[in-house]
Structure formats: C-alpha cells, structure tokens
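re: that complex we talked abt at group meeting.

here r the seqs, copy pasted straight from the sheet so there may be weird spacing, ignore it
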Amino acid sequence: MIALIFDGVLAVTLVALAWRVLAAPDAFEAVVVFITLGLLMALAWGRLAAPDIALAEAAVGAGLTGVLLLDTLGALPHGSPPAQAAAHAEIRGRGWPARVATGLLATTLGAAVLSLEPRPSLLAGQVSAHLGQSGVSHPVTAVLLNFRGYDTWLELGVLLIAIIGVLALRGSTRLSGETLARPPAVLAWLIRVLTPLILMVAGYLLWLGKHAAGGAFQAGVVLGAAGVLLWLAGWHPVAREWLWKVLWVIGFLGFIAAGLGQLLAGANWLEYPPETAATFILCLELGAAISIGATLAGLFIALHFPPRENLSGGPNERRP
Amino acid sequence: MSGILNVLGIGLCLIGAGFFLAGTVGLLRFPDSLCRLHALTKADNLGLGFMVLGLAVESDSLAVAGKLALIWLLALLAGASACYLIARTTVHDPGGGPE
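got the structure back, here u go
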C-alpha cells in the first residue's frame, strides 16, 4: 500500500516536472528542473527493478547532461528575465506546427502501444537459456556486449559522431591551451582527494558488470566526470590532440577489431567463442568505457572553452 | 533482538527524514543564500547521516554498512565543499545569480 502511494506520487511528480521544464519562464529554471527530473527518473527506474538504467539515468540524465546544459547556459548571451520571457513567448507562439506534429506522433504511438496484445516476451527466456555461453552471469551485460553487441558498437559510433559534430561546429579540435582562472583551493583539494576514488569506482563498476548492475556505460560516465573535475581544477596533462582522438575512437575500433578477428577465424561478426567470451567482453568494455568517458569530458571541455580565435569576438560574432 | 533493531533502524531513518523536511522548509523559506545554505547543509549532513545509520542497522552485513558509511563520508566531503564554493561566490558577488 505504501509502495503504491510512493509510486503514484513519483509518477505524478514526474509528469508535473516534465511540464515545468517546458513551461518554465526562464532557461536557468528549466535546466534545474530538468536535472531534478533526471534524478526522479532514476528513482523510477529503480522502482521498476532496472538498476542498470537507473545508474545510467542518474549519471547521464541528471549528472553530465545537467553539466552540459548549465555550461551552454553560461555561454549564451545574457538577457534580462523579462527579455528572455518575451523571446520564449515568441517561440511558443510560433511553435504550433511542431505541437501538431508531436501531438500526432504521440497519438499514433499511443494507439500502437494500446493495440499490442499482452503476451509474455520470449526474449527474456532466450537470454536466460543462453546465459551460460555469454561469458558473463549478468543478463543485461550479456545482451549489451554479447547477444546484441552490434547495437552497442553502433551506440559508440553515435557518441563518436556527437563529438565530431561538436568539434566541427566549434571550428577547432584543440582542447587545450585555453587560459583558465585559478580554481579555489578547496575545490582543487577536493578534486585531488576524489580523483583516485573516482577511478577506483569506475574500475569497480566495469568489473561489476560481469555479474551485477554496472558495466561500460556507467564506468564511462564516472570516468567522464573525473575528466570534467580535473579540467575544472586546471589540470591539463593531456595537451596532445592525437591522444584525445585515440581515446575517442578506441572503443569503436575495439569492436571492429574483435568483429574482424572473429570473421577471419571463421566465426560470425562479433560472435565470441564461449570459452573466451569473458575476456572479449572485458576488453571491449574497457575500450568502450574509456571512449565514453573521453567523449563526455571532451564535449564538456569543447563547450566550456571556445577556441582562442573566438574569444576575441563577442558572442554574436561566432563564425558560422 | 531483531525487533528492537528494526525499531531502532526505522526510528533513525525517521529522524533523518525530519532533518530533510526541516532543511527543505528552510531552503524554501529563508531569505538569502547564506541562510538557505545553512538549512541545506543540515539536511545533507545530519539527515543523510541518520538515514545511513538507520539503514546500516537494518542491513544484515558489515560490508553493506561499510559501503553506506563510505557514501555518507563522500556526501559530507562533496556537500561541505559545494557549500563553501556557493558561499564564496555569494560573498564575492552578492548581486549575482538569480534571487
């Protein structure tokens, strides 16, 4: 009974917060409410007994997306709240075609979901039947890295395209050399203390994926957070452009190498022999975690520090 | 014995919830950033501390209790530092930021 009340309050709050994100008069409030929405969404995934997604949602949806959004907000030209509200109202007034389109899409999707016949999914049974051959004992990791490794490979490709797109728009692939104000001593001390712990937690999450909730995505986000913190503390050891590029592509290339190797050995693309599957998965996950972490940290740094040529011009003088 | 522990665990969690409630009310009602920080950090430190104590009593293994204590320590570190950084910004730039 108490659980039902809790879930009900959670569901209503989620909808209310989602509405507030859209209706908030100023962008800062919208971002803060969006971060709150991400945290409660993680709680909802936890209640749905999906700890893997809850971890990812808390880390990506609330954590790093929030940081990126706040970062973007800081880079936008500052307007007074009334001016912002006026601009917002103008956008909202022009938004009716988008609203009609999303309304149609939502109706179609809703009708499609409602027309589905309720029947047990056969996939869960297939996964547990073949779990022994996957090399891991956690079904989520078995699906992500073995049975549907193709999807995970292409997801890494999506991340790669994201960072390439941001760097292309930014007009420079250099992520270092920008001037930075000295961080407060307390922040610098905290980051020095936390960094080893964060690295340990990332390794723990990566290893944990073998038999419990965890894995490359959670570990990668934690690594990305470490990169963001270190950068904020003014720690710029990685000044080399090529090193960043290697870190970004290593996960994606790792999957290609594993796939090609198995093709040459006479197996299918991304099919691992059961006896060495555990090693394959751990290596691929390690590469994926490094790439995810480097990509997320790279997105933050690229947004936070515009290239030097653009610093001289005002915010309206950005090159197209 | 387990009944007493259960009551103790729930009691500690309720005390923690009380601190969170008081902290939230303070955050909403207090007039300026420094007062709000004062309310917020009590919720973070003591509220979470009592919650962690209660959950540690409820947990049946020392390893889980240890992990919970570690979470509390990390939250203390991060909370205290974040509070200092916000307060520092407030003192250096009293007019800045949304009211």
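couple things i noticed - The first helix of chain A runs from residue 2 to 23. The interface with chain B takes residues 26, 28-29, 184, 186-187, 190, 193-194, 197 of chain A (CB under 8 Å).
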